[in-house]
Automatic annotation (TrEMBL):
Domain NAD-dependent epimerase/dehydratase as annotated: residue spans: 5-225
CDD domains: UDP_G4E_4_SDR_e
PANTHER family: BIFUNCTIONAL POLYMYXIN RESISTANCE PROTEIN ARNA, BLL5923 PROTEIN
Name this polypeptide is given: SDR family oxidoreductase
Domain of life, source organism: Bacteria
One Pfam family, short name: Epimerase
Lineage, opening ranks: Bacteria, Pseudomonadati, Pseudomonadota, Betaproteobacteria, Burkholderiales
Xref: InterPro entries: Epimerase_deHydtase (IPR001509), Lipid_A_modif_metabolic_enz (IPR050177), NAD(P)-bd_dom_sf (IPR036291)
Amino acid sequence: MTQHIAITGANGFVGKALSRVLLERGDVVTGIVRHPQSTYSGVREWVFGADDFDGIEDAWPSTLHCDVVVHLAARVHVMKEAVSEPLAAYRATNVTGSLRVARAARRAGVRRLVFVSSIKAVAESSQDHPVTETDRPMPTDPYGISKLEAERALLEFGAQSGMEIVIVRPPLVYGPGVRANFLQLMRAIAKGVPLPLGAVTARRSMVFVDNLADALVHCIVAPGAAGQTFHVTDGQDLTVAELVEALARQLHVPTRLIPVPVPLLRLAGRLTGRSAAIDRLVGDLRVDSAHIREVLGWSAPYTVEQGLLETASWYDSTR
């Protein structure tokens, strides 16, 4: 059945992938964006530029009737923080802004909101078992804290208003159009830069953007998704060294890995003030995505190899 889906942040990395999948299904998609003509072709646009969605309840167009809102827009992890109170800035967008979207959508008759959170709302690392939806959340940075607070606030709003809330927590998302650290890693591999990661045996979960988009479609349409929290991964966790080797194969360049012992990497992190970044690089973050498979019957349509091939092909096309 054709549905009308509104997506905040529809012009972003995940938003464009989700828009494409929904349009291919025959759904109607409206992107709630800050800038015009920035969404995937075929997406209707509502340009709303207020910071932190201030005033969205009163501004919501009377003509925008949709079944589900997917809330992707967020203040994401900032590498070089410029504000004096980061947590307050994250809360303003990720907590207050999310609640404003939910209230406006519910007032407009929207029955379900799918909130794309982050695995950082639960943990930065996994210890003796992959991170599950029932683990006690222990976020460690302002971004993760704000995402967890947003989850709780939205679930409370859903309980009060009758709106169906679905929480999705992806780990690192990659694919065509990826930015930040993953793009920097591809650039280094493509240029033949020797990387001191050959001795890193920790495994980290990831999710290909089209796998995430497919999971979000399930969360949009499945009755059983209401009120649930789901972790979504590719289902195959690579070490950093294995990731480098796989990308090098897809980019058709030699693998240049140096087996620097992990304690030396940690020492270098302390000396350079980058301990947090090094800890993320050398530490395990395995995520269990069995719950969405059991509840919704979802399975990743693309393998890690297929996802990395698509990502490498996109990178090659941009050089």
